Amino acid sequence: MNKRVQDKVVLITGAASGVGKADALLLAAEGAHVVLADIDQEAGAALAAEIGGTAAFLELDIGEERHWQRAMEQTLAIHGRLDVLVNNAAICPVGTLEDASLAQWRQVMRVNADGYFLGCKYGVAAMKRNTNGGSIIMMSSVAALGGLPLMCAYTGSKGAVTALTRNVAMHCKTSGYRIRCNSIHPDGVWTPMTQALVGDLDPAALGIGSDPMARMCRPEDVAELVLFLASDESRFINGAELRIDNAQTISGLAH
What percentage of the chain exceeds 70 in pLDDT? Predict the structure, then answer.
């Protein structure tokens, strides 16, 4: 039997660690040709070497348009096409509405909003030539649906990602491109970025994978949803907001 994403060409941003790394490992195991993009050259290249086969690493600062142009040129030069784009890279500084500076707001928007816009712009340009179209997967957050008081800029940026997802889905549908675009909305994911915010907590104490009230999941949990959206199994899912939050958003317990 073929694997679930056999021979699909997948570009993943923020692939050197966290959710992006879990995505890359799972998609490669399921038959994809993964292109790992990150600003961390050492970790990204090491992961590509670990995966082996056709896995490749590209340096990519997602807030720089020329980096996206180069990344797409290199991907098409290596594989001849792009089937899946996983817009995953992000930054998450703490700062309330009253504490956050305009500089912090702009820094976060440059990565989390501008970077995703550029990814979609160049991803669609590459995918629309495909007979079978493609899939764009946007990593948003429950912050976009409910708000996180301590992270004003991050919340705003993920709201932009969510709205952009709907726009891309409708643009591609009405243009006849057969390119799907969906957003994923985790609550807590136990990654290096999250650990930097709550590093004094023991993962076991958070009840990951065992406590029915848990708010933290593993990167691999998110990767499983990414795999589904990258595969043809999700061919009729477009413009959707998919929560992976153990019902936190609807529980009324957010704080």
Answer: 87
Q: What are phi and psi of 184, to 5 degrees?
A: -110, 135
Take residue 28 and report the two structure tokens written for it.
């490669």
Q: Which long-range contacts (CB under 8 A, 24 or more apart) does 143-147 make?
A: 144/183, 144/185, 145/185, 145/241, 145/243, 145/249, 146/249, 146/254
Q: Whole-model pTM above 0.90?
A: yes
Residue 126: what pLDDT?
Answer: 98
For 66-77, the pLDDT digits (tens) are 999 999 999 999
DSSP string, 31-66: T-EEEEEES-HHHHHHHHHHH-TT-EEEE--TT-HH
pLDDT at 254: 47
Question: Which among 116, 122, 154, 177 is annotated as catalytic?
Answer: 154
116 is catalytic: no
Gap between the Cα atoms of 152 and 175, Å rounded: 35
> Helix, strand or coil for residue 151?
strand
What is the chain's length? Answer: 255
**Cβ(33)–Cβ(7) under 8 Å?**
yes
DSSP state of 194: H
Reported confidence tier of residue 49, pLDDT bands at 50, 70, 90: very high
